[in-house]
Amino acid sequence: MKLVRFRDGQKICTGRLDSEKVIELARGKGEGLFAFNRETGRCFSTGKVKLLAPCAPSKIVCLGLNYRSHAEEVNLELPRKPMIFLK
Fold this sequence. Notes:
Layout: E1 2-8, E2 11-18, E3 21-27, E4 36-45, E5 50-52, E6 61-64, H1 68-73, E7 83-86
Antiparallel strand pairs: 1-2, 1-5, 2-3, 3-4, 6-7
């Protein structure tokens, strides 16, 4: 089973992808995405809705100076340990 988030007009919904259609799911019992386990009876063609990222974006994890040519561009040595930062 593939769980998806999708936009139906102005509303963001959760659903189950089934071939060329998305079956809308409602919150039942459980945690996180597993809570969406009740079908609402609404079904959409994948061409009629906009599929979104599986999770709502909350932060971006970045790796700095992660390749030699970039370090050379900015005249810095490659770090011995990965340089990780958040946006």
